């Protein structure tokens, strides 16, 4: 019997490689720079994610100049996020075709016990000189004490590479966030 | 009889592990720990022994007993079929129901799942996300999306898959993204 074996976190074509990691505490935003342009998939995984202010939503912007500036003009982004509640509230969609930022989730972060989110955000080939697309899903306990599940995606409507991503809350700062960024190269 | 395997995270290898369930009472993966930030279970060609049933997920903190209290879990799912759509949701469940549509036993009725479990060892609620595609017990082609959680902050060390009724068949592959 034979098996393909390799040491932990060794780069192997086609396999997820842990590229960056860290924690955020009371910071205005998380900025991930130097995204390799040859990555076919960049997967952001967040846990312990909440804002400093009650009832706020995480937002996201991207950069083509490695974080020197982030695209924030009207019409830069389109997104469509589906959200479903555990009960009592109405499900719905949050979408825009001309926003100054995009969304990884629509759930409101809270400051109460366990009112946090886990997120997965997948950017596909961000190094391509095409509109940049991402898919995102999240689950968490909202500021209202009700669980919410969201999934969807968005587009940065500029035909250029993305080599930096910024996430932040629409009001206040990131209270806590643990992140890992995985790359897949082909 | 359950099929059980340990995820050996101390071996300095990054192998996925696989269980092929053949009329098994359940599939159990043990050995989950903080060495992985994200666990992903891909389930291929899931077919229940009993028609029109659902696949459940439960978690364990000791690898021996699996949490099954009446309010241990919350889940929300939405499915789209070729002719129908449906949602499932509850915050007071003794399991997480993975398929929005019921699984069937007739020819070509089978589901594929991808289930993601976030850091099982951190101090937060144990959230999961999932996607299902396949052909339901109503012979409808479907896709569904799922979010859920074990509503406790204790470290999860094992997960169990079982049917709402009868035994299960399919190929269960567990892989971990490094912490």
Largest sheet of chain A: 8 strands, antiparallel
Report the C-alpha radius of gyration of chain A, rounded.
17 Å
The tally of beta strands of chain B, per DSSP, is: 13
* Overall SS class of chain A: mainly beta
Total helical segments of chain A = 0
| Measured distance between first and last alpha carbons of chain A | 27 Å
Strand portion of chain B: over 45%
Query: What's the average pLDDT of chain B?
Result: 93
Query: Which word captures the global form of chain B?
Result: globular
Order of helices and strands of chain A, N to C? EEEEEEEEEEEE
Q: Largest interface here, residues on each chain?
A: A-B, 37 and 33 residues
What's the short version?
The complex is a heterodimer of chains A (186) and B (179). Chain A is an all-beta fold and 186 residues long.
Structural overview:
The complex is a heterodimer of chains A (186) and B (179). Chain A is mostly beta strands. The two termini of chain A are 27 Å apart. Chain A has strands at residues 17-27, 29-32, 41-51, 56-63, 77-85, 92-99, 108-109, 117-124, 132-141, 147-156, 164-169, 174-184. The radius of gyration of chain A is 17 Å and the shape is globular. Mean pLDDT of chain A is 92; it is low at 1-5. Helices cover 0% and strands 53% of the residues of chain A. Chain B has no helices and 13 strands. Chain B has strands at residues 3-6, 17-24, 26-30, 36-48, 55-60, 73-81, 85-93, 96-97, 111-118, 126-135, 141-150, 158-163, 168-178. In chain B, the strands form 2 sheets. An 8-stranded antiparallel beta sheet of chain B has the order 2-13-4-9-10-11-6-7, with no helix packed on it. Chain B has a 5-stranded mixed beta sheet with strand order 1-3-12-5-8, with no helix packed on it. Chain B starts with a strand and ends with a strand. The relative contact order of chain B is 0.33.
């Amino acid at each position: 019997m034979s098996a393909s074996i390799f040491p932990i976190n060794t780069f192997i074509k086609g396999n997820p490689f842990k590229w960056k990691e860290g924690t955020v505490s009371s910071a205005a935003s998380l900025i991930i720079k130097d995204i390799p342009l040859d990555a076919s998939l960049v997967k952001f995984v967040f846990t312990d994610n909440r804002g400093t202010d009650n009832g706020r939503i995480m937002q996201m912007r991207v950069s083509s100049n490695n974080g020197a500036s982030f695209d924030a003009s009207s019409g830069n982004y389109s997104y469509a996020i589906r959200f479903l509640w555990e009960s009592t509230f109405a499900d719905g969609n949050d979408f825009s075709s001309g926003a100054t930022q995009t969304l990884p989730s629509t759930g409101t972060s809270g400051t109460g016990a366990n009112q946090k989110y886990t997120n997965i955000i997948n950017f596909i080939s961000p190094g391509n000189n095409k509109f940049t697309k991402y898919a995102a899903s999240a689950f968490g306990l909202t500021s209202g004490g009700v669980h919410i599940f969201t999934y969807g995606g968005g587009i940065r409507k500029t035909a250029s590479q993305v080599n930096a991503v910024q996430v932040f809350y629409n009001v206040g700062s990131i209270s806590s966030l643990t992140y890992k960024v995985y790359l897949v190269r082909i | 009889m359950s099929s059980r395997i340990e995820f050996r995270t101390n071996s300095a290898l990054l192998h996925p592990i696989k269980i092929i369930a053949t009329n098994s009472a359940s599939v159990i993966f043990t050995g989950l720990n903080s060495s992985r930030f994200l666990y992903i279970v891909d389930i291929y060609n899931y077919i229940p022994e009993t028609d029109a049933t659902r696949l459940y997920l439960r978690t364990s903190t000791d690898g021996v007993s699996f949490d099954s209290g009446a309010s241990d879990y919350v889940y929300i799912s939405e499915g789209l079929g070729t002719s129908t759509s449906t949602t499932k949701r509850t915050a007071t469940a003794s399991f997480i129901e993975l398929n929005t549509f019921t699984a069937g036993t007739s020819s070509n009725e089978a589901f594929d799942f991808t289930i993601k479990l976030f850091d099982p060892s951190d101090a937060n609620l144990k959230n999961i996300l999932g996607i299902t595609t396949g052909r339901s017990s109503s012979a409808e082609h479907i896709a569904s999306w799922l979010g859920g959680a074990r509503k406790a902050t204790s470290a999860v060390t094992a997960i169990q898959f079982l049917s709402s009724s009868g035994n299960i068949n399919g190929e269960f592959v567990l892989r971990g993204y490094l912490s």
